[in-house]
Amino acid sequence: MRFPETDIISLIESGCSVPRYDLAESVGPVLQLTALLQPPGSFPLEDIPLGYATAAGDIRLRETIAERHAVSPDDVVLTVGGMHALFLIAFILCEKGDEALTTSPAFPGTRSALEVIVGANLRTLPLSFDRGYQLDVDEFRSALSPRTKLVSLASPQNPSGVALAEPTIRNILAAMEEQCPNAHLLLDETYREAAYGTNPIASSAIALGPKVISVASLSKCHGAPGLRLGWAITRNKALRKQLVIGKFNTVISCSPVDEALALRVLAQRDSIINARRIHLAEGLSRVAEWVQRNSDLIEWVRPDAGALCCLRLTSVFDGEAVGRFYQALARFGVRVGRGTWFGEEVRIFRLGFGFLAPSDLEIALEMVTRSLRHAAQQAVEPVS
User: CA-CA distance, 58 to 259, in Å (whole number)?
Assistant: First the structure.
């Protein structure tokens, strides 16, 4: 099979039953189209020509994105979602047998783009739950070699929501300059703006060096995954040209309707992001309190941003108890993102706390508690 099977596809498969309480989703509330129809000062949607858009993407949209990142619009290439950008960058910068480096756990599409589709020799740096999924720069440096062509990281990470601090990114770039000076650093910053409450939004890493490539989309922070609108930002003119040509040779262009609606999303960006900051902060607080109440059965790594976090069943759970836990969740109509989706162990799972309304999140967490208690009780006191 050219593309490996991955269970994470169940999040969008039409044939799968939809759980009543979906804690597997990594997004916040989804925007409704009505919020984008006919906002003041915009042109009517019926005036959008349904011809091909440009290969680089709508200049007004690129200008808006560029302004937020303090770069030139010429540094921005629009893509069909962030995954398209990840694929193009991997395909352009790595040939079969070239060396690339990423971390684990990670979004499976990132690994597939490099290892399966491109055929790169992918080296993986494990990040540990016990160390809070923090990247150790010395271990990172040891994983590099003069043959490394691309380093692909995410900040904040998926599934953990843990971010790379700016000093860490600077140290990563310094290590790359020593070990593989021609390599590029790809940073997936899709969750960067999904901060909590009054927490500051981290700056994009695009300003930290000419070899940095930033990728993001409207899917996570803005609640518009259905628009399939992402972007890659690079100050390397040759790479940008290849991205435009690669986009033309894969999808020709983005949809002009998606680009027009994306422009409207970004025109309301501040109000959208601010409302979601409050929503995410409340969800994070509820999860933190829930973990504390159930600390004998569950532990977590507190995320830095995003609508997601990683939790781990404690040592109370043996292999059979873990299976009972997931079976109980299904009976209660609750879905979580299993750690195996991301290359993690079976006792770890991703929990999304931004998708559901606060009242539904409370109910869903109670269903998880019941599943935990049920599975753990049977592990300690087997039913005769």
Answer: 7
Q: What is the pTM of this model?
A: 0.92
Nearest Cα neighbor of 25 from 219, 188, 229 is 219
Pick the closest to residue 313 from 302, 323, 327 (CA basis): 323
Give residue 48's pLDDT. Answer: 84
How far apart (Å, rounded) are the C-alpha atoms in residues 330 and 336? 9
CB 349 within 8 A of CB 309: no
CB 251 within 8 A of CB 85: no
Tell me what pLDDT residue 41 has: 57
Q: Sheet containing 230-233: which strands, arranged edge to edge? A: 76-79, 230-233, 212-217, 184-188, 148-154, 99-104, 121-126
Burial 52-71 (b: 16+ CB within 10 A, else e): ebbbbbbeebbebbbeebeb
pLDDT at 384: 42
Which stretch of DSSP H or E encloses residue 76? strand 76-79
For residue 174, what is the DSSP state? H
Q: Which tens digits make up the pLDDT trace of 61-80?
A: 999 999 999 999 999 999 99
Tokens of 68: 């937020």
The C-alpha atoms of residue 328 and residue 173 are separated, in whole angstroms, by 45
DSSP labels, 44-75: -GGG---S---SS--HHHHHHHHHHHTS-GGG
Q: Which two tokens stand for residue 141?
A: 């440096």
Q: Which residue segments constitute the domains of the chain, with CATH numbers given?
A: 7-31+271-380 (3.90.1150.10), 47-269 (3.40.640.10)
pLDDT tens digit string along 306-338?
A: 999 999 999 999 999 999 999 999 999 999 999
Using 50 as the pLDDT threshold, list the residues of the chain that sit under it: 383-384
| CA dist., res. 208 & res. 167, Å (int) | 10
Strands 334-335 and 21-22: parallel
* Structure confidence at residue 383 (pLDDT): 44
Name residues whose C-beta falls within 8 Å of residue 46's C-beta, 6 or more positions apart in sequence. Answer: none
227 close to 33: Cβ distance less than 8 angstroms: no
pLDDT at 201: 96
